[in-house]
Specification:
Layout lengths: L9 H5 L9 H7 L3 E3 L14 E5 L4 E5 L28
Length: 92
């Protein structure tokens, strides 16, 4: 019998990606945002209440960490695409 494909998927063997943010407790208490380019960083329980400025390719977007975000990636909450908006032009 073949092993499950889920057990061999890349996300399982690669594991979570943790980033150490220096002075995290002080920044949470002060309410100052932390600039980061680590979009693949896994959100941990000790990061709840922190404010991050996550790089989305061109600029930094604000992200405030809540309890529902634990276990997910920072990049999931900093969208890289702008919302489409149609503009009527006068081309004939």
């Amino acid at each position: 019998m073949l092993p499950s494909l889920v057990a061999c998927s890349r996300s399982v063997w690669k594991g979570p990606y943790f980033v150490h943010f220096p002075q995290l407790k002080e920044k949470i208490a002060a309410g100052t945002p932390i600039k980061t380019m680590a979009r693949a960083c896994t959100i941990m329980p000790h990061m709840i209440g922190a404010r991050f400025m996550v790089h989305q390719g061109k600029e930094y977007l604000p992200v405030r960490v809540t309890e529902e975000m634990v276990g997910r990636k920072l990049g999931e909450f900093a969208h890289t695409r702008k919302a489409f908006s149609y503009r009527l032009t006068k081309n004939k």
